[in-house]
Specification:
The protein is built from 13 helices and 12 strands. It is an alpha/beta fold. Strand 5, helix 9 and strand 6 form a beta-alpha-beta unit. Helix 1 runs antiparallel to helix 4, helix 1 runs antiparallel to helix 11 and helix 12 crosses helix 13. The chain is globular, with a radius of gyration of 21 Å. The termini are far apart.
Length: 387
């Protein structure tokens, strides 16, 4: 589908649906095949070689095997790429599988084994880069220190904006300029393509824990990276070799989730704005982390809206946070985010537990993912839990 003249909402509904009329169907088809017929030995071999090298299957060939290619997943990838303004997208079994593939493809496979991590980052990403599992060296730094952190063997810069869990906003273009040609990966999970398009600001890759807003219903684990065609080939090569392929049913659920993504994000963002304003007036709240009052110029240019994540620092520290989270009734005390229902969690104790102490969120900070419930009910729940 040609998309230049279509609005974002229309693209979200129609992208990745090419050829459905020719198939005689309206709903997205699900191909659960683990293996596929080969037309003959020669074309089967050519297909296998193309797919293991990270390319699309030949038109006259075969999908060969589910670890190499799946048409249901490919439709989701095509749709996400259209929303991100990217040449291509590659889907993975989880967000961390996607992050791992990016590091392997841009660092291990190229010999440039140094990564710059711009803090704050999601705890899982921070722990992956800090550990020894991938055989890399890393330098963590603030957004304004990226240039000093770059080395001759730097293969990748990893950043997140809005950042988890303090919603820090980072200027993507400024980081790209400091990187000086080193590829920049932006974790776009909190913003989604509804609110932010990292590739338009010079990033090489836009990564999603698609488990979150992309899926939107808390029933799928997945990751995805939107990028240029050359990078997609490198990522698919890693995905094929490591077996981090996305299951077709998950691909279907994610594709379906994209159709309502703009509507969900805007409604959840509306709720978050009301909740943030109420929390700022509450005497038990020392600070509200919500970028609706950003003065850096990022909101309104790079970021089209403040989103639906709200974090708070509670007066009374960890003990107050523990009582608060245990008393909520409409909010669910659980990890993850971005679903239709509201969640609350304590980052320092769970999602960021593996982060170095000097970079870990404070024990007084609680993170909330605002859902689609009525804002009045959410505020009432917060009020009774605080009081």
């Amino acid at each position: 589908m040609s998309t230049p003249d279509l609005s974002f909402d229309t693209i979200a509904v129609h992208a990745g649906r090419d050829g459905l009329a020719e198939l005689g169907v309206h709903a997205l088809p699900i191909d659960l095949s683990s293996t596929n017929p080969l037309p003959d030995i020669a074309r089967g071999g050519d297909s296998y070689e193309a797919l293991t090298a990270g390319h699309h299957p030949p038109a006259d060939g075969s999908n060969v095997y589910g670890r190499l290619w799946n048409p249901t997943v490919a439709r989701f990838e095509q749709a996400l790429a259209a929303l991100e303004g990217a040449d291509d997208a590659v889907a993975f079994a989880s967000g961390m599988a996607a992050m791992t593939a990016a590091v392997l493809a841009l660092c291990a496979a190229t010999g440039r084994r140094h990564v710059v991590g711009v803090r704050p980052l999601y705890g899982g990403t921070d722990a992956l880069l800090a550990g020894d599992l991938l055989g890399i060296e890393r330098t963590f730094c603030a957004p304004d220190a990226v240039a000093d952190a770059i080395r001759d063997d730097t293969g990748l810069v990893v950043m997140e904006t809005p950042a988890n869990p303090t919603l820090d906003l980072v200027d993507i273009g400024a980081v790209v300029a400091q990187a000086g040609g080193v590829p920049v990966l932006v974790d776009n999970t909190f913003a989604t393509p509804v609110l932010q398009l990292p590739l338009a600001h010079g990033a090489r890759m836009s990564l999603h824990s698609a488990t979150k807003y992309i899926g939107g219903h808390g029933d799928v684990i997945a990751g995805a990276i939107a990028c240029d065609a050359e990078t997609a080939v490198a990522l698919r090569r890693v995905r094929t070799a490591t077996g981090s392929v996305l299951h077709p049913l998950a691909g279907y659920l994610l594709h379906r989730g994209l159709t309502t993504l703009p509507v969900r994000i805007r409604a959840q963002q509306h709720n978050a704005g009301r909740i943030a304003a109420w929390l700022r007036q509450h005497p038990d709240i020392a600070r509200v982390f919500y970028p609706d009052a950003d003065t850096s110029g990022i909101l309104g240019t790079q970021l089209r809206g403040p989103g639906a994540m709200v974090s708070i620092a509670l007066r009374g520290g960890y003990e107050k946070a523990e009582r608060f989270t245990s008393r909520l009734r409409v909010f669910t005390h659980a990890v993850s985010l971005g679903g239709v229902d509201s969640l609350v969690q304590h980052p320092a104790a769970i999602s960021h537990r593996q982060v170095a102490p000097d970079a870990r969120p404070g024990a007084d900070i609680v993170r909330m993912s605002i859902g689609l419930e009525h804002a009045d009910d959410l505020i009432a729940d917060l009020a009774q839990a605080l009081d």
